[in-house]
């Protein structure tokens, strides 16, 4: 993408050369197309709850004499407003992340503390679904970055695990250092994700099951926020999953360079 491949055959020797030309124009057009796409998607996504709120306001107006109906419509209106709020928050977060290097003013970050905070922020949702949320392992080395952004990323992964898994199931968060990378994995016993969908779920607004995602309060932006945060930190996020066997999302981040240059292994 953004590259033109030209094949040149030099006769009569018959040797083949591949010429790669990076075409900046194509790159710019692509970025523009992505931006237009994003704006179109955002408008569409925002219109849904706004439209619903407007219809519900009318319904409340019409049912003014029926207290029970008013209460019901008001409840639904509240839910749509919450969804709208979550969408706006995610959109702002994502556009901030797509801008300049947000991790410029980073500091030494303890991932154990980040995970503890992310788990804490998901405790109530886990309790409401009777999900056993546990943390195991330890990361004995710091990473470099923005603790708040990393907390948001891990909170999103744990939040998904809790929302998509069945009630009374288990969600486990594992911490370790492997091959010089600080590794956090989030495992659930949910429906799983097919191989062809595993790449696509990190795209903005992509949902496997639209109805389910909307119902569980999803915005379709969570994983793309995770991907941006982690790549801004020089790391990567991947998924292992099989339909019917749950999913494991893994985040790998480079250890922060130590003064003495030595990398440390974690104590598990
Ligand atoms: P959403 O807000 O819809 O959850 P995400 O970007 O976080 O958006 O996730 C994209 C889609 O990937 C979801 O709609 C869901 O279909 C799928 N997905 C994400 N996490 C999981 C999971 N742990 N188990 C099963 N499906 C998942």
Automatic annotation (TrEMBL):
<keyword id="KW-0597">Phosphoprotein</keyword>
<feature type="domain" description="Histidine kinase">
    <location>
        <begin position="41"/>
        <end position="257"/>
    </location>
</feature>
<keyword id="KW-0547">Nucleotide-binding</keyword>
<keyword id="KW-0808">Transferase</keyword>
<keyword id="KW-1133">Transmembrane helix</keyword>
<keyword id="KW-0067">ATP-binding</keyword>
<keyword id="KW-0812">Transmembrane</keyword>
<dbReference type="GO" id="GO:0005524">
    <property type="term" value="F:ATP binding"/>
</dbReference>
<protein>
    <recommendedName>
        <fullName>Sensor-like histidine kinase SenX3</fullName>
        <ecNumber>2.7.13.3</ecNumber>
    </recommendedName>
</protein>
<keyword id="KW-0472">Membrane</keyword>
<keyword id="KW-0418">Kinase</keyword>
<keyword id="KW-0902">Two-component regulatory system</keyword>
């Amino acid at each position: 993408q953004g590259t033109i491949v030209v094949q040149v055959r030099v006769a009569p020797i018959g040797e083949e050369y591949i010429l790669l030309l990076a075409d900046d124009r194509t790159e710019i057009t692509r970025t523009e197309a992505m931006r237009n796409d994003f704006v179109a998607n955002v408008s569409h996504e925002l219109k849904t709850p706004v439209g619903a709120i407007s219809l519900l306001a009318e319904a409340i107006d019409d049912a003014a004499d029926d207290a029970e109906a008013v209460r019901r419509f008001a409840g639904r209106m509240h839910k749509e407003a919450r969804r709208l709020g979550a969408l706006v928050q995610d959109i702002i977060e994502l556009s901030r992340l797509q801008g300049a290097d947000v991790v410029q003013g980073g500091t030494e970050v303890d991932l154990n503390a980040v995970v503890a905070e992310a788990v804490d922020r998901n405790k109530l949702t886990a309790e409401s679904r009777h999900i056993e949320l546990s943390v195991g392992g330890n990361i004995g080395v710091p990473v470099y970055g923005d603790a708040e952004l990393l907390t948001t990323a891990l909170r999103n992964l744990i939040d998904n695990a809790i929302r998509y898994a069945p009630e009374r199931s288990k969600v486990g968060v594992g911490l370790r250092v492997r091959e010089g990378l600080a590794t956090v994995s989030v495992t659930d016993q949910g429906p799983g994700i097919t191989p062809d969908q595993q790449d696509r779920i990190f795209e903005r607004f992509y949902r496997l099951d639209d109805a389910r995602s909307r119902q569980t309060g999803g915005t379709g932006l969570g994983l793309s926020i995770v991907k941006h945060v982690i790549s801004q930190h020089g790391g990567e996020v991947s998924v292992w999953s099989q339909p019917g066997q749950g999913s494991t999302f893994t985040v790998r981040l480079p250890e922060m360079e130590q003064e003495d240059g030595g990398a440390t292994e974690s104590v598990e």
